[in-house]
Each structure stands twice: as C-alpha cells, then as structure tokens.
Amino acid sequence: MDSTHLHLVANHFPIVGLFIGAAIWIASFLFKRHLAVKNVALSVFILVAVTGLIAYFSGEGAEHALEKMQGIEEDYIEVHEDYGKIFFVTSLILGAFALLALYVENVYKKNSKVLNYILLSVIVVSCWFAVKTGFTGGEIRHTEIRPGFVLEESEE
How many whole angstroms separate alpha carbon 39 and alpha carbon 31? Predict the structure, then answer.
C-alpha cells in the first residue's frame, strides 16, 4: 500500500471519529453512568489523534502522486494541506487533553470542570478544522463541490 492509498484509507476516521466522539462526550453528561460513557468518548479522541498521525504523515506522499495527475490544481492541494496541518495539531491537543482527563477522572476520581471546558473548546475548534480539512480535501478531485461549479446541460 503506497502513501496515497494509506492517506485515502486513514483520512476519514479522524474527521468522522471526532464527531462520533463529540456526540458520545456530550451524551455522557445526560447518562447516570457518566464516567463510563465519558471514558469511551475520551478514548475515541485519543484514537482520533493516533489515526490523525497516519493521515497527516501519509499526506505528503499523496500530494506528490496527485501533482503528477492531469487536471489537478495545486492551489486546492495547498489549501487542504494548510487546514490539514491545523486540524492535525488540534486533534493532537484534543488527544492529549483526553488522555489527561482519563487519568484525572480514573486515578484521582475527580471530575474537573476546568478540564471539561478546555475539552469543549478544543472539540469545537477541532470540529471546525475537521470540516474545512475534509471539504478542501474533497475539492481536490471533486470539481462539482468547488465554488462556482455549473453543471453543463447535455444536448439530447
């Protein structure tokens, strides 16, 4: 498997996993078994960070392969790469805070409100950059989602 294929396989989980983790994390505050559900969400955030490593580091090889293809515009790759770097960093920060929260809540048996507010902030920022990263990645090959796309009517 080359880096292009690896990037295509790995790039979906950090984005989708982030939203799944966020939904579970928010739901954890609604359940009586708050800590168990929250631990699942925090574990998902850690997995998002780990799979983000794979997606990020396979991106450069994917870029080099795409640059050789006809009809690929470098500007779209660069915008995607810029958002991808920021999303990668925010997902690592989220993973680190999730790891810290798992430690604090399971070892010290404390629910830190400050840590929850930090997590909420990082989740929101990460979600925004996840959307931008995914959308700009799609624009590289899918011209139909680019701004200004007009569907040409066929003559029949």
Answer: 13
Q: Which of 129, 133, 139, 136 is nearest to 90 (CA)?
A: 129
Render pLDDT for 83-118 as a digit per residue (tens, 0 to 9). Answer: 999 999 999 999 999 999 999 998 988 888 999 999
pLDDT above 90 as % of the chain: 60
Q: What's the predicted TM-score (pTM) here?
A: 0.88
How far, in whole angstroms, is CA 137 from its chain's centroid?
12
Helices (H), 29-73: 34-67
Structure tokens at 70: 């006809």
Q: In sequence order, what are the residues at sequence separation of 6 or more whose Cβ sits closer than 8 angstroms to the Cβ of residue 98?
A: 41, 42, 43, 45, 46, 49, 119
CA dist 78 and 55 (Å) reads 16
The Cα–Cα gap between 24 and 18 comes to 10
Burial class of residue 8, CB neighbours in 10 A (0-12, 13-18, 19+): middle
First to last CA, the chain: 43
